[in-house]
Protein 1
Amino acid sequence: MIDFELTSEQQEGIKAAHESAKELFRPVSRYYDEHEHESPQELIDKMWERRGEGIFSMGLDVTSALRIEELCWGDAGLYLCIPGPALGGAAVFSSGTKEQLGRFLGGFNEGGPKWGAMAMTEPHAGSDTAAISATAVRDGDEWVLNGEKIFVTMGKRALENSDGFVVVWATVDKSAGRAGIKSFVVPAGTPGMRVEKLEKKLGIRASDTATIVFDNCRIPFDNILGSPEVKKTETRGFRGAMATFDATRPIIAAQAIGVGRAALDFVKETLESKGIKIRYGAPRQKLTALERDIMEMEANYKAAKLLTLRALWMMSQAQPNSLESSMAKTKAGLAVTKITQKAVEIMGPLGYSQKHLLEKWMRDGKINDIFEGTGQINMLVTARRVLNYSRDQLK
Ligand SMILES: Cc1cc2nc3c(=O)[nH]c(=O)nc-3n(C[C@H](O)[C@H](O)[C@H](O)COP(=O)(O)OP(=O)(O)OC[C@H]3O[C@@H](n4cnc5c(N)ncnc54)[C@H](O)[C@@H]3O)c2cc1C
């Protein structure tokens, strides 16, 4: 049964994360927005020092989502810079064996800051993941990887630090379609893997977004996540990718929620400072347009949050959560987009000016409606599940 009471451990985690967001993230938020590709080294070092406080070890659970909300309330781009296995870790976690979990993730928070990343998207394969054309060819006790991956979040950092890694999706058998697509862990420093370029972006500019090229990149055979066997009869798509999305989509939703709440808090505090109170509970016909807007923003924020917590809670109970993960991601991506845009609208020039961070949150928020499956794709996944349609029946 879902319990809405937060444990004392969760409350402490939220408090610690909120303090970091307020003291460390917010003061440098504008600077790193304006200095894209500059590493927030001081912040990384400070976050590394604080890793014992529970904010550092981001898992794939309700407690982590609550912390992530706080950190992204501070700054979503800087949150992505915190050392950790990130989406690459989620891929290992959801498809790796016990031995691989120990090998790739054990001790990740020791010895010095390092990062993980996940590389699925290619120039002609984004939403259509089945079009992945990077290849993995077995050669004795190695795999040889070739191809180009784009838009890899924290790709540069994952490659720069020893012990970092990238999880790469590639096909071992093109004729098998989806069933031939597998994921592989490529440790930082592996010859044949290089960062080709960094994107300049609308938002989350503190986080690097890299193009990574694999040119005859050799990795050990047992770096494949999941079975190397290709089951051509597999109709439900490549399970590893789906299992990864089930884990990562609610985490992205938690990031969205944090940015949305930052905008909501800003609007409410500004209105309050001008003596404008929101009359909760007033009859609907007596509400002002402003009050209705604020209440709608809050309702969207809360609905997204509850869906997110549910998806993660189900995962921690080992319950299938594909539907709930996609629902949470769809709602949260949409909610943050609506909330931040409405906040800018309500605040007018205050929202548009760079004097405040609100315009930045509007830019930062939008990515949550794009990566880990766009809003449209997650809506499609949700519709298929609710209506019990196959991938071919509902495109
Ligand atoms: C800042 C940033 C960071 C990223 N980080 C990562 C990362 O770490 N790892 C990674 O692998 N990828 C990452 N991505 C890539 C991201 O996941 C893809 O951009 C996303 O999945 C969309 O794919 P696409 O770019 O090919 O767009 P398209 O698939 O070409 O989509 C374009 C538009 O068409 C819509 N569309 C596509 N198909 C359908 C359909 N069947 N029905 C309805 N609408 C549809 C989409 O919703 C979208 O609005 C990142 C992207 C960005 C911008």
Protein 2
Amino acid sequence: MSTQPVPTMKAVVRNSFGPPRVLEISVVDRPVPDDDQVLVRVRTASLNRADWYAMAGRPLLGRPMMGLRRPKSNRLGTDYAGVIEAVGKNVTGFRPGDEVFGGRDGALAEYVCVRHDRAIVHKPPNATFEQAAAVPVAALSALQGLRDRGGIQPGQKVLIHGASGGVGTFAVQIAKAFGAEVTAVCGPRGIEAARSGGADHVIDYTRDDFTRGDDRFDIVLDVAGTRSWRHLRRVLAPRAIVVGVGGPKDNRLTGPMSHMLGLRLGAMFSRRRAVFFIAKFNKADMETLRDLLADGRIAPVIDRRFGLEEAVAAFDYMGDGHPQGKVVLVIGRE
Ligand SMILES: NC(=O)c1ccc[n+]([C@@H]2O[C@H](COP(=O)([O-])OP(=O)(O)OC[C@H]3O[C@@H](n4cnc5c(N)ncnc54)[C@H](OP(=O)(O)O)[C@@H]3O)[C@@H](O)[C@H]2O)c1
């Protein structure tokens, strides 16, 4: 009696926390979709700072969730775009051959299985797999930060602090899509992308200190997290809100949390508010992002592409903290 070989795939794996060199490309079992899942052949994945934290096992405060001594999961990644290869018998709305994108743990692999009712949507035909894979975590964070936490309204003055990276490039475009007047703060290499993303004003933080300017903002989306409440409050309108998205990763124990806490404490005795949030995947928001991508209101900025075998170099590049837009891993081609 002959037994069928178990289908396999390549995936980025690691068995310990540490720098990018802990990553390996291994051959692992290919996942098998259950009745409610689709099997996606990944064409492109994109990297987020969260993947870097998961690789490094930082901040240390997160270790109870990630694994105290070694990672609970040996897989990495979230954002993917690809083609559906198989569907479970309860799946509606997707068929083999459909081009899709979304978020799923372990996306740095040739295949992922995803529940059909989760954060997976059809890729617009006008978007490439690279563009679609760039969207999920970064654009979702910008959308939920500006709309749900910031309550963005047309005509408001919005400042994006850290406008040139993964989240920031989407935040500029999404704030414009909501009809805001947008000021982008970024380094010199991001100025052009901020302008073409629609920013009304661009401030190069290496030349000018935006907290010394005369403008007052209704919303500050704080992606970079390099300025304290004492500085940010100078540019806040009377009922403004600072939406904290991220912060420097240097603090091994707390990561960006110490900056967030500083903002919250600073705002405690002020009429201005500071909030922090963690973006959450849901289908409705992925559909919103798909529509924005389809009609060109968001155009992902891709800084660099790497192959799956170059995962170590890709994480090294992203870890430096100054990608201009998104870093993608090209995993499969037809
Ligand atoms: N809360 C959430 O749900 C959520 C979701 C996604 C990401 N995040 C967090 O958000 C942060 C940014 O993520 P990302 O993917 O956009 O990272 P990224 O691609 O590395 O972008 C970082 C941005 O910060 C800017 N920056 C660095 N130093 C700066 C300084 N001194 N002054 C002003 N800007 C500075 C960079 O500009 P230059 O390159 O021009 O220096 C760049 O625009 C990270 O901390 C990440 O963990 C949080």
